[in-house]
Design brief:
By secondary structure, this protein is an alpha/beta fold. It folds into two domains: 191 residues, Bordetella uptake gene, domain 1 (D-Maltodextrin-Binding Protein, domain 2), CATH 3.40.190.150; 117 residues, D-Maltodextrin-Binding Protein, domain 2, CATH 3.40.190.10. Helix content is 45%, strand content 21%. It has 13 helices and ten strands. Strands 1, 2, 3, 4, 5, 6, 7, 8, 9 and 10 form a ten-stranded mixed β-sheet that branches. The radius of gyration is 22 Å and the shape is globular. The termini are far apart.
């Protein structure tokens, strides 16, 4: 009996020490993995989040770019990290939803291998061309693409990314065929359009806004149903002949499966407070995004819902990736 109580005593002591150590979170640098190159929407938002989260937690938070395979490499790196709250992932909706249908051998399952933390922001895509392009508006785009199927090229930050799927849905609804030119990241795709290697680009608004405002890009249409307050003169694709066309992108924060619930709760509540700050809302708005918080539970529901919706679109478009 004495031996039994001795083991109970030792177990309680161990639990007390474990909880005491755990209560110190965070006590070392937190890393947020961005699964794309620097300069794109995910990277820009990730750096803003890291800056604000480091203030909120009074602890260093850094960004690490782990690009490749349209974001898959960065997500997989997160799933393999220790579930201690010191490795997080910021990722767009396609990585969590459509990739399950797109890839035959996806090395992770978003809800099985990751913990949701919160949704962070949302925005739309925008169709852009160089300012001196002979494609002046949406009518030109549809006319030229119809006249020469597959003869017009569009760039993206990689196969399977949100902009790639936005273009695929556009082609299905418009009844046209464009040639996809995938790059290893959004910034490289932007450079490809600037150099004339591609004819147009389906881009995220944070990436294209600076070049639209500087006069280097001309925008043909925005992928939200309503116009953007920052670009009121740019019509939506929906109001230009494709009334059912709407594609939005949103970003969420994730952690490896098994991350302690109290750590996830701390991160979730911290992010909710951060996204409610006026200065953060303004910074996101300047990037063409909106503060768009959702709880862990609501984000999980959204992923489940959109996974089914994108599966239908992908099958209709006939897109399959290895």
């Amino acid at each position: 009996m004495k031996q039994y109580f001795k083991w109970i005593y030792l177990l309680l002591i161990a639990l007390l020490f474990t909880n005491a150590a755990h209560a110190k979170y965070p006590e070392k640098t937190i890393k947020i993995i961005v699964p794309f190159t620097a300069g794109g929407a995910t990277d820009i938002a990730g750096r803003l989040l890291a800056e604000e989260l480091s203030k909120a937690l009074n602890n260093p938070v850094v960004v690490e770019n782990r690009e490749g395979a349209a974001g898959v490499i960065g997500v997989q790196a997160t799933t393999k990290a220790a579930p201690d709250g010191y490795t997080l992932l910021i990722a767009g909706n396609t990585l969590m939803t459509s990739h399950k249908t797109l890839y035959k051998n996806l090395p992770y399952d978003s809800l099985r291998d990751l913990e949701t933390v919160s949704r962070i922001s949302a925005g739309s895509h925008i169709i852009v061309v160089k300012a001196n392009s002979n494609i002046k508006d949406m009518k030109d785009l549809l006319r030229l693409a119809s006249a020469k199927p597959g003869g017009m090229t569009y760039g993206s930050g990689g196969s399977g990314t949100s902009v790639h799927l936005a273009a695929e849905m556009f082609q299905v609804q418009a009844g046209i065929k464009l040639l996809h030119v995938p790059y290893r990241g959004t910034s490289l795709a932007v450079n490809g359009l600037m150099s004339g290697d591609t004819d147009l680009m389906f881009d995220t608004t944070p990436s294209s806004f600076p070049k639209i405002k500087s006069g280097q890009f001309r925008s043909l249409g925005i992928t939200s149903l309503n116009r953007s307050p920052d670009l009121p003169d740019v019509p939506s694709v929906a109001e230009q002949g494709l009334p059912n066309y709407e594609v939005l992108f949103w970003l969420g924060l994730y952690a490896p499966k098994g991350t302690p619930a109290d750590v996830l709760q701390l991160l979730e509540s911290s992010i909710q407070k951060i996204l409610a700050q006026d200065n953060v809302k303004k910074k996101l708005a300047d990037l063409g995004m909106s503060s768009f918080f959702a709880s862990r539970a609501d984000l999980t529901k959204q992923i489940t819902k959109e996974t089914a919706e994108w599966a239908d679109v992908i099958k209709k478009a006939g897109v399959v990736l290895e």
